[in-house]
Amino acid sequence: MSATRHIEREDLALFAMQLLPKDEHALIAAHVAQCAECGQALAEVQGDLAVYAHTVDMHSPPAQAKERLMKQVAREKKTVPVERVATPPLEFVGRSEGTYRTGLGSGAYLAEEEPKRNWAAKVFPWVGWAVAAAVAVVAGNLYHERDALLSRMTAQAGRLDQVSADAAAAKQVMEAMTDPAAKHVTLTKAPSTPTPPVPQGRATYVAEKGTLIFLASNMEPLQPYKTYELWLIPADGRDPIPAGTFHPDERGNASVILPPLPKGIEAKAFGVTVEDEGGSQTPTMPIIMAGN
């Protein structure tokens, strides 16, 4: 290789894929840096490799390039056994499987495996939700406990008010019972029908003079054609002597004052009967009032 000798295209392909030994790689790099034609060829090779890398359909590399590649691989194994890395064969994986072509010359080397996520990375995103759910549960429990506490406090306040009211009423009753100015009155059951007053009569008689005064009270009213009649019953057994008729007023009061009676007749008793209007000469039984 000299300034007038250009690099073979296969060597440029190996150079682009970084498969040459370090010394050859350095020589080609120095030559390409100074040779515009080889630089242009290297750019084309790199472009081809990029196209291969982004092509879906599988295209076999040129047979000559493949053969040279295999020779170069064999030589690399002999010269640098330790540093050589087994070159994986070209393989393609369909896009439908979500991967790209891999391998040398494909422009995309072995598919990068996603880093494995440890358990903390898997669990940590859910920690926030779990904490939020726990906080919500605790808040709900606190809300219900607060309502229950308010209900109990309201009930206790109601009972306390009732006890205070009862105590105030008891104190007022005690003050009324012990007040020296209090008036004590005993009440009894009232009779269902009022008892009518009992008719009464008082006679004042002087036998020697034949003077008689009779006063009556609580006398019941009579029918229009009836009248009360006073009788003097003699002590010697003679028949009763009429001593006058009378009618009570609206208050039941009546009187017979100084009726015409014979003098000197001792009275055994006095009686009152109910007679027809105008009076009678003999009493009509029964005698409703009598006294001696």
Topology readout:
Blueprint lengths: L8 H8 L5 H13 L1 H18 L9 H17 L39 H60 L21 E7 L4 E7 L8 E9 L6 E6 L7 E4 L9 E10 L12 E3 L1
Antiparallel strand pairs: 1-2, 2-5, 3-4, 3-6, 6-7
Provide structural commentary.
The chain is of the alpha+beta class. Helices cover 40% and strands 16% of the residues. It has five helices and seven strands; from the N terminus they run H-H-H-H-H-E-E-E-E-E-E-E. A hairpin with a 4-residue loop joins strand 1 (200-206) and strand 2. Helix 1 crosses helix 3 (36-53) and helix 2 (22-34) crosses helix 3. Residues 92-111 have low confidence and may be disordered. It is found in: Cell membrane; Membrane. InterPro entries: Anti-sigma-K/W_factor, Anti_sigma_zinc_sf, RskA_C.
Key words describing this protein structure:
three-stranded antiparallel sheet; Anti-sigma-K/W_factor; rod-shaped; cell membrane; Anti_sigma_zinc_sf; four-stranded antiparallel sheet; alpha+beta; Immunoglobulin-like; 292 residues
Helix tally equals: 5
Helix content: 25-40%
Which regions have little confidence, pLDDT < 50, spanning 5+ residues? 92-111
Q: How many beta-strand segments?
A: 7
* Class per helix and strand makeup: alpha+beta
CATH class of the domain at 200-291: Mainly Beta
Order of helices and strands: HHHHHEEEEEEE
Question: In one word, what is the shape?
Answer: rod-shaped
Main sheet characteristics: 4 strands, antiparallel
Q: What's the assembly state of these chains?
A: single chain
Pfam family, one: RskA_C
Domain Anti-sigma K factor RskA C-terminal: 130-286
Membrane topology: Single-pass membrane protein
GO molecular function: sigma factor antagonist activity
